[in-house]
């Protein structure tokens, strides 16, 4: 089988992926968040990277920079509209899945604890807007 649904049946296109919607600083729309405050996305040479800053007890916690795997809205599209990436902190791991929709980023976060703390794994969805720096 070469397709799992009808939308998968499209001719292959070797054109470049347009990642222009991603780069910039994305800020959480909830000023009271206790999770991820902002994301810094960059694109260079067709590669997408993500740096996460989360709320900590004494300021922002820099999660570092990881490669993000971009996705399009369909197999025939060349425009990036989503991505996935993961962070491993040793005691826990977090998978991020995002979708760009109407100028916003919808970010799904799947947090899994790997230590013996007894904390429950959890899921969060938050919304981010691209910082425009106009005012």
Describe how the helices and strands are arranged.
Elements: E1 24-28, E2 36-44, E3 47-56, E4 59-72, E5 80-88, E6 92-101, E7 104-113, E8 122-130
Antiparallel strand pairs: 1-2, 1-8, 2-3, 3-4, 4-5, 5-6, 6-7, 7-8
Kindly list the characteristics that best describe this protein.
mainly beta, Lipocalin, 8-stranded antiparallel beta barrel, globular, 135 residues
Q: Which percent range fits the helix content?
A: under 10%
How much beta, percentage-wise?
over 45%
Q: Which strand order does the major sheet show?
A: 1-2-3-4-5-6-7-8
Instruction: Give me the strand/helix succession.
Output: EEEEEEEE
Total number of β-strand segments?
A: 8
End-to-end C-alpha gap:
53 Å
Q: Give the mean pLDDT.
A: 92
Low-confidence stretches: none
Please, how many domains?
A: 1
* CATH fold-type name: Lipocalin
